[in-house]
Amino acid sequence: MQGRTTWLLLAPAALWFGIMLVLPLCFIVVFSFGDRGPAGGYVPAFTLAQYANLPSRFAVFRNTLTLAPLGTLMALVIAYPLAYFLALQASPRWRTLLLILVIVPFWTSILIRSYAWIFLLGGQGIPALFAWAGIPLPRLVNTPFAVLTGIVYGYLPLMVLPIYVSLDRLDKRLLEASADLGAPPFRSFLQITLPLSLPGVATGCMLVFILLMGEYLIPSVLGGGLVFFIGNALVDLFLQSRNWAFGAAVSVSLVVIMLITVSAYMWLMRRLGGARDDVSLM
Description:
The chain is built from twelve helices and no strands. It is mainly α. The chain has one domain (about 55-280): MetI-like (MetI-like fold).
């Protein structure tokens, strides 16, 4: 009876998951073995030509697999001290206000925020300030630097919140015990705070990285057509050149990359769960 109840509870989510994710993915896989029609679209076939043509999009994969991990790392470097301050240093009186300020950027469209960075990185923004100080700067907009700045700014809150939750749930008595035993603050951080916050770090990194792998808007706006991500290539292949078969092959390649990443994430989470239990037993 309990097993039947469990299946009944899981059935709506499983049905939704199958229709909205698995079924479209099956179509994409089938399309990836086809050909482009004379007028575009898809012609049924069974060929590996689309996968053999993937090296022609090497620059797209290179940009994505370089800037997405780098943007995730930079967001982590900025987010961890902020989350640490909010969870362990800020007074309860100010904590809520500071958390609201972290979330406030989500109240504005990412498109508007990206266009704001065009002004900041353009000739009348940051370069103008440096030029006024006598320090010439190279072009900032329509460069990988501009795209990296945009993705770190846009996805920083998604990195802060999981780390904050992980640090906020940390048992403060462990830190007090470490201090009573004579451990300096830095050692307490390395041996207690950091290991116990790693699940939040892993969750934030995975959340930001997955979204960045499919990012389209920020490279399109701040890259100026010069810095393409896989998302930009898919829009071009499906909507402009109408090469659905090749676009499907690129999509399948992206899915494979993400499956490998998620598998590594699950393995890391199991390892971190064991490390967290060891620290809790100390």
